[in-house]
């Protein structure tokens, strides 16, 4: 089975880290490829960044369909372009926020999300609502860390995030923690050990969920909302996106 | 006051029609400019089209901020890129679905949306939820008309849409109708007369709402969710979108 | 266009203030008349006061229909009698809480209401729910000020309200503020300047929304919930309210 | 124990019927008095009628407090003035829609309301939401009968209502029926026998609920929302409503 | 009328206390029997305990149907086995959480539940949702007291619970208190006096609600969800539960 | 990894079928054991049956903890005893309704459940709400087939269920189908082929989800709701359930 993990930002160190975490949890028969798009923002910290990461994601999905990819993971906690991607994929396309929240609701009766900047909290709340997970989400907590701080050697991010997770357990009365950024994927086990409670990383969860779906032959329904888009003209620099 | 009406698709005949309807309702002191982006899909009928209309919309907003525009209308019923646009605008940015639904909830205690293709109904439902308008929305009805059929001379669209509106009043027990596509803007008064009930066109409503907000000096709050995005690098063909 | 602004309490100084604020934002062609009813409470601070303000409001609406009024604003933050008023009006009838909350949801992704007495907070919450705005309302904060304290020269109300608004931004993480009493209408710009964030005054918003609706020929739907009441006998001192 | 049953309309035949039904279910020690207010509409079939029934209801509550009444029932399915009444009563004040819906949710896992005119259905839906009962309410069905048709000798109302109840069981898949008008109170047992399923009459339920609350010494909480209104001036013909 | 009060745990001192409180509020013609099942946990403080209390409850209901019982109360705040019990009873079966929450929503516009252990708070929240009462429930507060501590002579429970109730009024802004354990039933009046606000005990409320329903001839609807279970084989030690 | 699949009813042919389906989708390293409890109902078609299946389920979970089981699946679409089971398990415990609904929400933007008897539809709706999946569930459809009819050779069940699935796609506008009974697990692929849309079987999904969770070292959080129950006495035939 071929799974393509798309890090929607263009920061290669983060893509590498995500790829390693994905490979570490993949089943023996699964081939993981982790990519960054050819275009777009270096990190995603706003609706603007998120919207502009989508052309790059769709470019990778369209290529993946040519390459025989069986399933996709969109590895940014805003799950950018998820529904658009599903329209052009046959197999499953899974967002890491989606996978993490679903899994968290089975692990505990409530969770807190610990994320980077406060301005992105609303995006997480919107996703929790969209996926039906709002009832399990006690809080979305920001650490006031820019995304790329997670990539900076010598950064204090690890300590700050662990501390936020610990406080979430107590102050939010949450029973487990969801890591709210793909860049935190390598911290998952360490934080779980430190705080003594389950910590959920969306990258691992999404990889396993994609594997599960492919193995029981579930992909994306082509009836209704996520059917293939109608063919039509595209203008300007987006002309290559025209389907037929 | 300068208002910019952005038709997110690249079909100029629709842009012209939207511009005329906007100008017809604008106050004496309002200057309307209606534009299509330099890039993107000829019509918007899927999540894919919608996502790929956003770079063009943002391009127009960024230009508008240089041109001294006071407020913006995004004239596609999916309100694509609305929150991203707000992050880079100072004044109000209003989606036509947003404006129409808010206005409809004051005109009647319930409404039905009448739109083009069935596959876009979910998009309208998502917006109704996002804006808090789900409780007023009795139904979203599709006419099985592609968007550009509304632009084709000799099309039967007018009759089909009117009939769908009439049925919505009876079958959905709705008290008014929201037109679910910017391309229907010119049909509003005619259908209202034909069915004997209020019909709400998002283009007109959004223009008046933008005027109202500018005149009482309300724009987009720059605290939190819609604050200006952080400066960062953008790669590939999206490099021009880097803010500073 | 003739707009009638009804202050549902009988305190003339408040009616005058409301009338001035309404006139200041009205378009050139709009004639504003601001009135207090002939009967009812000096201020509205309970369900009891609110219920007993309605006969006076309806009296003014019935008169307005004779006078050729095009649209109405009910200028009390509880929006008393709104649906009853709509049944007897042809044009739009807009409550100031309704207008302010709708407008606030476009200005920011969340708002706090700052109002007078704690006992009225529930009324604001009920309205937020009724209008679909609960999802945007982070908090309703009381200042422990009776309504008429806002009319008392030398009162400390201005300072107390400004302080409550400032705290709402920080503690509720709200992106804009809705003033929860018609008597605060004149404080709007001053508080906005003081706190550096948008402050929304329902009186201005309702005037502009009424103008907008009249100008695009939207009134109150006469199908269903807000159709004209059936003729019938009324007894006792309410006999004059019988319609025919 | 003294219970006062207020029929908010001024039609004495309906008041008499309501009083008889109330007396028939009251416990041995309960004294029932059933009254119509001195003012207001002959029947309640709109928001307008409902709003204008409230001064009469409050007049009866204020009198009841002087007369040593222990609890009140407001016997109109719109529960007009319920919260205002609670502010001026010490004991419980119960609306018949409230009592019927609560009881219905214990009798079956879902119910349908069968009421008079279609234009009042929204009022029932609003109450279902307000009381938390929307999740149990499968439908609100109108019979297209004016309220006073229930009082007309020789009317076909009985047959029409029974038929509507029967259809509600099948078409709405409801497990019991709530009668949506105080004027139907005498039909309850007969319809239950005819359709073979529980039928809930709000007048009986409200009487029993009021008795229950008084007997365990529960009244209306005077903290917060339903505390006694502040003293203030009332103008015009409403001057007698000023409290002190 | 015969009412059977089932304390789902096997602690006889608690059953006696519950029986006394039930008898104290029962009407003259009501015969109360209070029982503990022949099997099950000594106290109920988890989903596990709750699930394992249900066979004993159903055993008592099945026996009650033979004994001519008219109505049942399940006297544990988790309302264990309520729907299963309804399937095998003809008359009403009422849970004490259900009765208390319904009654509380009439007494005040919001309530707090004060219960024993923190781990049971979620159970109360689930019930509040299931009964439609979540909108009235401001908080569920735990006292960190095991259930049987309420039975221990010399315990400090009374003081701790009273204090929690007092704080709930202030910190949760609740207008009344619901006692979240059947073992608190005897404290109700004392706490109400101490805190000066209504305190609602589910045992009393459920007894009165059962009496009310029986007296107006309302039982459990046998259409749909709570119809009698189909006959079938039961294996092992549960063989006696097979119905026919 | 050892997974235990518990069929909560005592019908061995169904247990065998479930075991085969589970084994067919399990990963190479997974050992599946499928069991029926030693006690309980032959099929589960009511709240009563469901409640009485729980002692048997818990018995199997307690044994499984001794046997070194890594994860559990409860293979009845009512997910009986799920939370109680989680309290006594260290690893994940997954209900088949839970697994199927979560997976369905990723496969399509909406689903219909196709189940056996109408009286169990409410149970499915409750679960959809509890898991946050109500927003994706367009309908729960019953086939009017008793559960054991699925086990009867020569039954017409296969045809009836396929037809119900086909109608669900069209009439409910659902994008995929969830099979609402563990006894349908072997029909999944056949129906998917017949109707040309994804069909989701909870047994397969739950097995894959359990594998996924174990492989990323996620179990049941022991903080809060699903912590191990407190030790206490159990009486009567349930005495063996006392934990220590």
TrEMBL record, chains A, B, C, D, E, F:
Its EC number is 5.1.99.5. Gene3D superfamilies: 3.40.50.12500. It is an enzyme of class 5 (isomerase). Pfam families: Asp_Glu_race. The keyword Signal does not apply. It catalyses: D-5-benzylhydantoin = L-5-benzylhydantoin; a D-5-monosubstituted hydantoin = a L-5-monosubstituted hydantoin; D-5-isobutylhydantoin = L-5-isobutylhydantoin. GO terms for molecular function: amino-acid racemase activity; hydantoin racemase activity. InterPro entries: Asp/Glu/hydantoin_racemase, Hydantoin_racemase-like, Iso_Racemase_Enz_sf. Keywords: Isomerase. It comes from the Bacteria. Belongs to the HyuE racemase family. This is Hydantoin racemase. It comes from Cupriavidus taiwanensis (strain DSM 17343 / BCRC 17206 / CCUG 44338 / CIP 107171 / LMG 19424 / R1).
């Amino acid at each position: 089975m071929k799974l393509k993990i798309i890090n929607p930002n263009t920061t290669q160190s983060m893509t590498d880290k995500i790829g390693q975490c994905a490979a570490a949890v993949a089943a023996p028969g699964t081939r993981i490829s982790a990519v960054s798009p050819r275009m777009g923002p270096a990190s995603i910290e706003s609706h603007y960044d998120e919207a502009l990461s989508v052309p790059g994601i769709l470019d990778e999905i369209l290529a993946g369909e040519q390459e025989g990819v069986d399933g996709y993971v969109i590895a940014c906690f805003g799950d950018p372009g998820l529904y658009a991607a599903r329209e052009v994929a046959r197999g499953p396309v899974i967002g890491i926020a989606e996978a993490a929240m679903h899994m968290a609701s089975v692990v505990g009766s409530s969770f807190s999300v610990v994320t980077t900047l406060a301005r992105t909290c609303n995006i997480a709340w919107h996703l929790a609502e969209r996926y039906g997970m709002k009832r399990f989400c006690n809080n979305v907590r920001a650490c006031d860390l820019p995304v790329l701080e997670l990539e900076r050697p010598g950064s204090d991010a690890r300590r700050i995030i662990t501390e936020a997770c610990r406080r979430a357990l107590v102050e939010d009365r949450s029973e487990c923690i969801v890591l709210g950024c793909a860049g935190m994927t390598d911290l998952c086990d360490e934080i779980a050990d430190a705080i003594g409670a389950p910590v959920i990383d969306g990258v691992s969860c999404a990889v396993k969920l994609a594997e599960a779906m492919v193995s029981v032959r579930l992909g994306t329904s082509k009836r209704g909302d996520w059917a293939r888009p109608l063919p039509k003209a595209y203008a300007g620099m987006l002309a290559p996106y025209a389907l037929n």
